[in-house]
Design goal:
By secondary structure, this protein is an alpha/beta fold. It has helices at about 5-15, 70-80, 90-100, 115-130, 185-190, 195-200, 220-230, 250-255, 280-285, 300-315, 320-340, 370-380, 400-415; strands spanning about 35-40, 45, 50-55, 110, 135-140, 175-180, 200-205, 235-240, 260-265, 275-280, 345-350, 355-360, 385, 390-395. The mean pLDDT is about 95. It binds pyridoxal-5'-phosphate. Pyridoxal-5'-phosphate binds near residues 114, 119 and 239.
């Protein structure tokens, strides 16, 4: 793959778009972002017409692969009738019913556009319900780019102040965060016992640490958080922006059998379009009729909700999760097997169709693994395989055994040369 047109396109984009990328994290693509002209199933085609097997899947959303015909036909049928109307339409309840049907604790929902936004809404609901201010979250977890949650990634024992996640962020909101360690039951207990004194309104957790190593919760971690939240009047929020509708139809709640008060969903829910939701207990959600502000011009827009309804109906077929599990397990065994066959090759952590490359003995951080993964990222791109800079791998129902065998073959040849 020559990547020639992508290189030229990136240079041109940099002249009109800050950093040359639509989202800052994409700047980590090496040697530069691939410029795509078409995307179907498990594949994308670049501006030169070269085809790639895509393991990025738009950074998570595409559980059914690119351009799923069911989603496209629902979107086309709606888009020719209306686009955004700023008032009620039937897809508001049709899509909501399809989402609530899948989520074990789904009594009611609120629509918003991105995961970042939905997290903010969930926190506002928790603060309104408890009359408290602070949020317990876990080191290295990512909950969107907003100042209120985008904190430095350092591990703390809950007493050290959080650092801003980047320049230009407000430091005054950081005191709202209490940062603990994922899977540290003892520390969570120690902090939550003092929830009233510490003014803690919510526990915000990505139950599988999607952006920091794909670490699964220990058997007692989520259930202990549930018990402690109940005991100390704290709202338990699962951030399932990546995990939701990907690791299971009912997300982390279904997979681990622990029901939060609220869950935040985004990516996979909309099959490639833009919409997110806060889902959970009616009593919490209904606070929007009692002074909690939740707004957005593009919330619940018909085109996105047509995509949500079609995607959620497609995901209701149990074959989807069976297929995802089979193909993801095959990827782990076959491609992971190639890594395992070379010294210091590393391995994958896997929860369902979400995988994370882990270098030997390493504790992966957020959005970047370096070392051998950088070699793999760049080397595989030249042979027609698109991976993420962070080492995360997303599978879809559109990936096939032949994609995986081709990936393994190319990886083996690459590593033999390295
Ligand atoms: C766990 C998690 N929460 C929230 C977000 C923010 O979602 P968005 O990028 O749609 O704002 C992300 C994005 O990757 C995420 O992975």
């Amino acid at each position: 793959m020559a990547l020639k047109s992508s290189r030229v396109a990136f240079e041109r984009t940099r002249r009109s778009v800050g950093g040359g990328v639509g989202s800052g994290l994409r700047a980590a693509m090496r040697p530069h972002p691939l410029f795509v002209r078409e995307a179907r199933g498990a594949h994308v085609w670049d501006l030169d017409g070269d085809r790639y097997v895509d393991y990025v899947m738009a950074w998570g959303p595409l559980v059914l692969g690119h351009s799923d015909p069911r989603v496209l036909s629902a979107v086309s049928a709606t888009a020719t009738k209306m686009q955004v109307v700023g008032t009620g339409h039937a897809l508001e309840y049709l899509a909501a019913e399809a989402v609530l049907e899948a989520v074990p604790h789904g009594e009611r929902l609120l629509w918003s556009n991105t995961g970042t936004e939905a997290v903010q809404v969930a926190l506002r609901l928790a603060r309104a319900a408890t009359g408290r201010r602070r949020v317990l979250k876990f080191a290295k977890s990512y909950h969107g780019w907003h100042d209120t949650v985008h904190a430095g990634m350092a591990e703390t024992d809950g007493d050290q102040p959080a650092a801003p996640g980047g320049r230009g962020q407000s430091s005054s909101v950081l005191d709202d965060l209490v940062i603990a360690r994922f899977n540290d039951v003892r520390l969570a207990r120690q902090i939550l016992i003092e929830a009233v004194e510490r003014d803690i309104a919510a526990v915000l957790i990505d139950p599988v640490m999607s952006n920091a190593g794909v670490e699964t919760p220990s058997p007692e971690f989520l259930s202990t958080l549930r018990t402690l939240c109940d005991r100390h009047g704290v709202v338990l929020i699962f951030d399932e922006v990546i995990a939701g509708f990907r690791i299971a139809r009912g997300g982390a709640a279904e997979k681990y059998g622990v029901l939060p008060d609220l869950s935040v969903f985004g990516k996979a829910m909309t099959g490639g379009f833009t919409q997110s939701a806060v889902v959970g207990r009616a009593e919490l959600i209904d606070q929007v009729t009692a002074g909690v502000v939740h707004a957005g011009t593009f919330n619940a827009n018909p085109v996105a909700l047509a995509a949500v309804e079609a995607t959620m109906r497609a995901l209701a077929d149990p074959v989807v999760y069976q297929t995802l599990e089979e193909i993801s397990s095959e990827f782990d065994t076959v491609v992971g097997g190639i890594l395992g066959s070379v010294p210091d090759g590393g391995s994958f952590n896997r929860v369902g169709s979400l995988l994370q490359y882990v270098p030997p003995g390493a504790n992966t951080g957020l959005h970047g693994t370096g070392g051998l993964w950088t070699t793999i990222l760049e080397g595989m791109l030249h042979h027609g395989f698109l991976f993420m800079p962070s080492g995360k791998v997303f599978l879809s129902t559109a990936h096939t055994t032949s994609d995986i065998e081709a990936t393994a073959g190319a990886l083996e040849r690459l590593l033999r040369r390295t």
